[in-house]
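Researcher: Let's do a round of design. I'm pasting the C-alpha coordinates now; please hold your answer until I've finished.
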Protein backbone atom coordinates (compact mmCIF):
# COMPACT_ATOMS: atom_id res chain seq x y z
CA UNK A 1 0.00 0.00 0.00
CA UNK A 2 1.24 3.43 -0.83
CA UNK A 3 0.28 6.61 0.94
CA UNK A 4 -1.67 7.76 -2.10
CA UNK A 5 -3.88 4.68 -2.00
CA UNK A 6 -4.90 5.09 1.60
CA UNK A 7 -4.82 8.86 2.02
CA UNK A 8 -8.16 10.67 1.90
CA UNK A 9 -8.63 11.95 -1.63
CA UNK A 10 -11.78 13.95 -1.12
CA UNK A 11 -10.21 17.30 -0.41
CA UNK A 12 -10.25 20.22 -2.80
CA UNK A 13 -6.89 21.45 -4.11
CA UNK A 14 -5.03 23.72 -1.71
CA UNK A 15 -4.52 27.37 -2.55
CA UNK A 16 -3.75 27.98 -6.20
CA UNK A 17 -2.84 24.39 -6.97
CA UNK A 18 -4.88 23.36 -10.02
CA UNK A 19 -7.01 20.24 -9.78
CA UNK A 20 -5.77 18.99 -13.15
CA UNK A 21 -2.15 17.94 -13.54
CA UNK A 22 -0.03 16.55 -16.35
CA UNK A 23 -0.12 12.74 -16.08
CA UNK A 24 3.18 10.93 -15.56
CA UNK A 25 2.42 8.39 -18.28
CA UNK A 26 0.04 7.45 -21.07
CA UNK A 27 -3.08 5.29 -20.82
CA UNK A 28 -4.43 3.17 -23.68
CA UNK A 29 -6.57 5.09 -26.18
CA UNK A 30 -10.34 4.79 -25.83
CA UNK A 31 -11.88 2.25 -28.23
CA UNK A 32 -15.37 0.86 -28.82
CA UNK A 33 -14.45 -1.94 -26.40
CA UNK A 34 -14.50 0.61 -23.55
CA UNK A 35 -17.61 1.36 -21.50
CA UNK A 36 -18.65 4.78 -22.75
CA UNK A 37 -21.51 6.78 -21.26
CA UNK A 38 -22.78 9.73 -23.24
CA UNK A 39 -22.02 10.99 -26.75
CA UNK A 40 -19.41 8.69 -28.30
CA UNK A 41 -18.18 11.59 -30.45
CA UNK A 42 -17.93 14.13 -27.61
CA UNK A 43 -15.17 16.74 -27.70
CA UNK A 44 -13.97 15.82 -24.21
CA UNK A 45 -13.36 12.37 -22.77
CA UNK A 46 -13.22 11.67 -19.04
CA UNK A 47 -11.56 8.29 -18.39
CA UNK A 48 -12.16 7.32 -14.77
CA UNK A 49 -10.09 4.60 -13.08
CA UNK A 50 -12.30 3.42 -10.24
CA UNK A 51 -12.71 0.88 -7.43
CA UNK A 52 -16.27 -0.18 -6.57
CA UNK A 53 -15.34 -0.53 -2.87
CA UNK A 54 -13.54 2.80 -2.59
CA UNK A 55 -15.41 5.30 -0.39
CA UNK A 56 -14.02 8.22 -2.40
CA UNK A 57 -15.24 6.63 -5.64
CA UNK A 58 -18.69 6.23 -4.07
CA UNK A 59 -18.64 9.92 -3.14
CA UNK A 60 -17.38 10.89 -6.60
CA UNK A 61 -19.90 8.88 -8.64
CA UNK A 62 -22.76 11.43 -8.26
CA UNK A 63 -20.29 14.19 -9.27
CA UNK A 64 -19.68 12.42 -12.58
CA UNK A 65 -23.42 11.91 -13.07
CA UNK A 66 -23.91 15.64 -12.42
CA UNK A 67 -21.21 16.56 -14.97
CA UNK A 68 -22.92 14.38 -17.59
CA UNK A 69 -26.16 16.30 -17.01
CA UNK A 70 -24.40 19.67 -17.09
CA UNK A 71 -22.37 19.15 -20.26
CA UNK A 72 -24.62 16.79 -22.23
CA UNK A 73 -23.13 15.87 -25.61
CA UNK A 74 -19.89 17.77 -24.98
CA UNK A 75 -18.38 15.08 -22.73
CA UNK A 76 -18.24 11.30 -22.57
CA UNK A 77 -17.47 9.19 -19.51
CA UNK A 78 -15.30 6.10 -19.83
CA UNK A 79 -15.21 3.70 -16.89
CA UNK A 80 -12.10 1.57 -16.29
CA UNK A 81 -11.29 -0.76 -13.43
CA UNK A 82 -8.67 -0.11 -10.76
CA UNK A 83 -9.60 -2.33 -7.77
CA UNK A 84 -7.17 -1.75 -4.91
CA UNK A 85 -5.65 -4.88 -3.41
CA UNK A 86 -6.74 -4.07 0.15
CA UNK A 87 -10.42 -3.80 -0.86
CA UNK A 88 -11.32 -7.47 -0.59
CA UNK A 89 -14.40 -7.61 -2.85
CA UNK A 90 -13.39 -5.00 -5.41
CA UNK A 91 -11.78 -7.34 -7.96
CA UNK A 92 -14.81 -9.68 -8.10
CA UNK A 93 -17.20 -6.75 -8.21
CA UNK A 94 -15.28 -5.35 -11.20
CA UNK A 95 -15.48 -8.74 -12.91
CA UNK A 96 -19.22 -8.83 -12.17
CA UNK A 97 -19.80 -5.58 -14.08
CA UNK A 98 -18.10 -7.10 -17.13
CA UNK A 99 -20.30 -10.21 -16.94
CA UNK A 100 -23.34 -7.92 -16.81
CA UNK A 101 -22.05 -5.98 -19.84
CA UNK A 102 -21.55 -9.22 -21.78
CA UNK A 103 -25.05 -10.49 -20.99
CA UNK A 104 -27.05 -7.27 -20.88
CA UNK A 105 -25.16 -4.64 -22.86
CA UNK A 106 -23.95 -1.16 -21.98
CA UNK A 107 -27.14 0.16 -20.37
CA UNK A 108 -27.14 -2.81 -17.99
CA UNK A 109 -23.43 -2.25 -17.22
CA UNK A 110 -23.91 1.39 -16.23
CA UNK A 111 -27.10 0.64 -14.31
CA UNK A 112 -25.22 -2.07 -12.39
CA UNK A 113 -22.28 0.21 -11.56
CA UNK A 114 -24.72 2.92 -10.39
CA UNK A 115 -26.52 0.43 -8.15
CA UNK A 116 -23.34 -0.98 -6.56
CA UNK A 117 -22.20 2.53 -5.68
CA UNK A 118 -25.66 3.28 -4.24
CA UNK A 119 -25.72 0.13 -2.12
CA UNK A 120 -22.12 -0.43 -1.00
CA UNK A 121 -20.90 0.88 2.34
CA UNK A 122 -17.37 0.68 0.83
CA UNK A 123 -13.96 -0.15 2.32
CA UNK A 124 -13.59 -3.65 0.95
CA UNK A 125 -16.62 -5.68 1.88
CA UNK A 126 -19.33 -3.02 1.67
CA UNK A 127 -21.27 -5.00 -0.90
CA UNK A 128 -21.55 -8.76 -0.28
CA UNK A 129 -20.39 -11.00 -3.14
CA UNK A 130 -23.46 -13.24 -2.77
CA UNK A 131 -25.61 -10.21 -3.66
CA UNK A 132 -23.93 -9.68 -7.05
CA UNK A 133 -26.19 -12.29 -8.72
CA UNK A 134 -29.50 -10.90 -7.41
CA UNK A 135 -28.38 -7.40 -8.43
CA UNK A 136 -27.61 -8.68 -11.95
CA UNK A 137 -31.18 -10.02 -12.13
CA UNK A 138 -32.41 -6.60 -10.95
CA UNK A 139 -30.84 -4.96 -14.03
CA UNK A 140 -32.39 -7.54 -16.35
CA UNK A 141 -29.59 -10.10 -16.71
CA UNK A 142 -30.09 -13.88 -16.47
CA UNK A 143 -28.81 -14.68 -12.99
CA UNK A 144 -27.56 -18.22 -13.64
CA UNK A 145 -25.68 -17.17 -16.79
CA UNK A 146 -24.22 -14.27 -14.82
CA UNK A 147 -23.13 -16.55 -11.95
CA UNK A 148 -21.37 -18.99 -14.25
CA UNK A 149 -19.52 -16.07 -15.91
CA UNK A 150 -18.48 -14.69 -12.52
CA UNK A 151 -17.52 -18.05 -11.00
CA UNK A 152 -15.43 -18.83 -14.09
CA UNK A 153 -13.41 -15.61 -13.58
CA UNK A 154 -13.88 -14.86 -17.28
CA UNK A 155 -12.96 -11.19 -16.90
CA UNK A 156 -10.32 -11.42 -14.16
CA UNK A 157 -7.50 -10.75 -16.62
CA UNK A 158 -9.30 -7.85 -18.29
CA UNK A 159 -9.68 -6.14 -14.90
CA UNK A 160 -6.00 -6.75 -14.10
CA UNK A 161 -4.98 -5.40 -17.51
CA UNK A 162 -6.97 -2.20 -16.97
CA UNK A 163 -5.38 -1.77 -13.55
CA UNK A 164 -1.93 -2.22 -15.06
CA UNK A 165 -2.80 0.31 -17.79
CA UNK A 166 -3.88 2.82 -15.14
CA UNK A 167 -0.61 2.29 -13.27
CA UNK A 168 1.31 2.99 -16.50
CA UNK A 169 -0.61 6.26 -16.80
CA UNK A 170 0.35 7.31 -13.27
CA UNK A 171 -2.71 6.15 -11.32
CA UNK A 172 -1.86 5.20 -7.74
CA UNK A 173 -5.17 5.76 -6.00
CA UNK A 174 -8.86 5.98 -6.83
CA UNK A 175 -10.69 7.73 -8.28
CA UNK A 176 -8.24 9.07 -10.88
CA UNK A 177 -9.76 10.71 -13.93
CA UNK A 178 -8.02 11.57 -17.19
CA UNK A 179 -9.47 14.55 -19.03
CA UNK A 180 -8.63 14.19 -22.72
CA UNK A 181 -9.35 16.79 -25.40
CA UNK A 182 -10.01 16.30 -29.13
CA UNK A 183 -6.31 16.45 -29.99
CA UNK A 184 -5.52 13.74 -27.43
CA UNK A 185 -3.91 16.08 -24.92
CA UNK A 186 -4.40 14.62 -21.45
CA UNK A 187 -4.66 15.92 -17.88
CA UNK A 188 -5.22 13.86 -14.72
CA UNK A 189 -7.49 14.86 -11.86
CA UNK A 190 -6.80 12.80 -8.75
CA UNK A 191 -9.32 12.10 -6.03
CA UNK A 192 -12.98 12.84 -5.41
CA UNK A 193 -12.67 16.47 -6.48
CA UNK A 194 -15.83 18.60 -6.42
CA UNK A 195 -17.74 19.39 -9.63
CA UNK A 196 -16.26 22.90 -9.65
CA UNK A 197 -12.72 21.56 -10.11
CA UNK A 198 -13.86 19.52 -13.10
CA UNK A 199 -15.94 22.35 -14.53
CA UNK A 200 -12.92 24.68 -14.39
CA UNK A 201 -10.79 22.17 -16.29
CA UNK A 202 -13.54 21.26 -18.80
CA UNK A 203 -14.48 24.89 -19.48
CA UNK A 204 -10.81 25.75 -20.13
CA UNK A 205 -10.62 23.00 -22.77
CA UNK A 206 -13.96 23.93 -24.38
CA UNK A 207 -12.98 27.60 -24.85
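Researcher: That's everything. Go ahead.
Model: Designed sequence:
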Amino acid sequence: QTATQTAPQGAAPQGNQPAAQVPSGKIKPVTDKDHIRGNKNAKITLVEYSDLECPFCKRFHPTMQDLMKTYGDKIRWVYRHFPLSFHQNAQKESEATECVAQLGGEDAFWNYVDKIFEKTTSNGTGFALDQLGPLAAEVGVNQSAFQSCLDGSKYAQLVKDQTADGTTGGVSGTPSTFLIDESGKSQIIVGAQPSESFKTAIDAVLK
